[in-house]
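hiii, so i know i said id send this last week but things got crazy w the move. better late than never?? heres the sequnce for the chain we talked about at the cafe, plus the structure i predicted for it. fair warning i was half asleep when i ran it
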Amino acid sequence: MVRGRETAQRLFAVEYNSSRFEDRAIEENAPNYVITPLGSHVNRLFFMGVLMNKTNTGTGDLPNFKAEVRDPTGTFYLYAGQYQPQPLAVLSHLEPPALVGVVGKVRTFTKEDGTFYSSVKPESIFKVDVPQRDRWVLETSRFTLERIKAYEDVLEMEEPSLELLAEKGHPTRAGECALDALRHYGRSEVKAYADAVKIALMAVVEGNGRPVEIGNAEPVKEDIGEDVKATVLSIIKELSGERGALYRDIMKECEARSIDKITLEEIIQALLDEGQVYEPTIGLIKSI
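okay and structure toks below
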């Protein structure tokens, strides 16, 4: 059975780092998930922030990098080795501080005393600009607030359910997260995450220099036209061998056609969701 690639979820560091539970797969090659305090089941995540420092714990011939990327709410901890060639190449040459975007997989470790640590195994690291970072903050704030509001309503229900949450206007995804948060973390305080959203939004300024208010935290959507999606699909088909097209080759060709990495990631995810492509293995995309 061919497994589709998991969606790279937008998540703030404060929520990810506060996670204490995971869902480990029993099947071989099945995805593992970190379960966050707001109920997100995360296998892959997408975030932006400042590369604060990096350390090569390997050698010049066999580098192995530890790095820290800070968003407005906290720090993501990255570990990249020989099996992450693109992030390894970027970290070898990019000097902190630098504004970057990261797409990566969850990485966890539990100590003997039960202390749970979550970090990130990067799949791709790329430079971004301030407008791109601001758009990510707005999108991530919206998703985080949806989960917070759904969870707050769950706490007020005697017998919470998706149906009751839908009646209150909550998206299905946020409702599922709220119920999972209650199931794993019980009745917990979420004010810290609402406060973190406010801090993140203060980092985003409008054209006239005013901080964005929490009530205005609607996503700044850039319409991805069908022509751009068709172009990416065409590139995948052109570059595909018997096993598919290498993601780095797709990225290089898209850059040559002025399609940035963030747009490419969103389009590939859309194509995966639509069933037009699949990922036979990490780093390869193949059309159907």
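btw The first helix runs from residue 13 to 17. thought thatd interest u
miss u guys!!
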